[in-house]
Structures are given as C-alpha cells and as structure tokens.
Amino acid sequence: MKKFYGTGVAIVTPFQTDGSVDFSGLENIIENLIGNGIDYLISLGTTGESATLTSLEKKEIWKFTAQTVAGRVPLVAGVGGNYTAAVVENIKNLDKQGFDAILSVSPYYNKPTQEGIYQHYKTIAAQSELPVILYNVPGRTGSNISAETTVRLAHDCTNIIAIKEASGNFDQFNQIMRDKPESFMLISGDDPVTLPMIALGAVGVISVIGNAVPQLFSDMVRLCLDGKWEAARIIHYQLIEFTKLMFIDGNPAGVKEALKLTGLCENTLRLPLVNVSPKVSGLIAAELKNLNS
C-alpha cells in the first residue's frame, strides 16, 4: 500500500456561479495537483462538499475524475454515512474503474458506541472489493473512533488498510502506532499537525490546503518522509498562517477562495456553507502573495 504514502489531497468540488458542478474547473484542479507533485487524490471527501451533492452528481463527478486522472496517480472515493446498509449499497454501486480504495467517514450524528463503530466498519470491509481507509474526525461526526477500536479493526479486517486521523489526540496516535499491525497505515487528517504525526510514524497526509499549495505542501511531506526535518520545518513554519486562514471561516470556504485567487475555479459554495468574509479574503490574498514571493 505504498501508493498511499505521501500527500493525498481531498479535492474540492468546484461549482459555477449558478450552483451547478463546474467540470472544467475540476479538470483544472486535478491537472494542477498532479502537475505539482501530489501523490494521490480523494474524490468526494468532506472537502468535496459531498453532503450537498445528489447521487447523480456524485456518479458524474467520480466518473469524470477517474477519466481525467487516467491512472496517473492513485485515486480514492469518499463513501461514508451513518446508515451502514446504505454505505454498503453505495460502495457496491460505485463504478470502481480507476479507483484504488474507499475512504469512509465514521458514522455521524447518531453517536454509535465503539462496538457499533467496529461492526459498521467490519460490515463495510467484508462487502467492499476495494481496500478501506477509516476516517476519524470527531469534530464533525460527534463521536471518536478510539485507538482500541482502530487497532481491533486493523487486526481483524485485512481489507482495512489505514486510518485518516483527524482527532488531534496525540495520545491516540501513540497508541495506534504502538499496537497496530506493521502494514496498517496512520495518515494525518489535519494539515497543521502533519509534520509531528510523520515524526511519530504516520505515512503522510490527506490534505485540504494541498488543493491550493500542492507543490509546497507535498515538498514538506516528502522531506519529512526522507528524514530531512530541518528543511521540512522551514516549510511547515511558512505554512502556519496560510493554514489558519484556510479554516478560519470553515472548510472548504477558505481553500475555494485561494483557488479563485489563483484562477483555477470560482469560490462558489452550496448552502449552508458561505464564502469567507472580505477581511479573510484579503488576508488569504496577501498570504498567497507572500508564499509565492
């Protein structure tokens, strides 16, 4: 599973000003990411505003993305939800041509127990033809996948190959790294802590800010993986302010603003998400100029 080492990017879904999917903008973004050193891509994760897309739109986006990527880098489909049977059905119905894995977010809102989370993922793994990457983001889902549950799934389900960890809990990261099977991968799900997570043994990141600064961010991750910590820290520090600005008014509002400023797509979002404030827009523009100078 070395194909998931390095920098993965959760691609935004660009929209036209009328709210329809902007496939030309999506092509621009994909080409820019591949051309600037990203290692793999994730289609329709949280950053892709998947919660606001219809089933037909998702199918069209997945198909277009797979055709555009054309096997040049590994590709992951984001398929999750809080009804296990529906997630299984959606995975079965996915046109898997061109995809290498499934990224599946932990069930949200209904707050299952750890046993419920375990059974949810065990059921998905048993039914999925593609390997599964767990996604733990308690700030969005309202529940945490404990280290014990992650390790249990990693040992019991050979089709579960990794976890995208965005809990921010380093005690949890430590336990996963200590107790997991050797082949199971810890992946950072939180841009600002990618460097220290790789220092612990994470194999890389699934990034948001990589949409906007793919070369700079993927360079930092490669330096980390090569053990070149001094050079990696220089880039890490350069990105601190930009990373803050990407999330201050929510995700993907910040990164879509940056993409508009770089000319790749419009900054249109679907309600209930709205654009960044004029003040934040100005700060993002200034920081992009600073990073590019």
UniProtKB/TrEMBL annotation:
Coiled-coil blocks: none
Enzyme Commission (EC) number: 4.3.3.7
Main location: cytoplasm
Record's subcellular location: Cytoplasm
Lineage top rank: taxon: Bacteria
GO CC list: cytosol
HAMAP family, per database record: DapA
Name under which the protein is recorded: 4-hydroxy-tetrahydrodipicolinate synthase
Organism, scientific name: Mucilaginibacter arboris
Record gene name: dapA
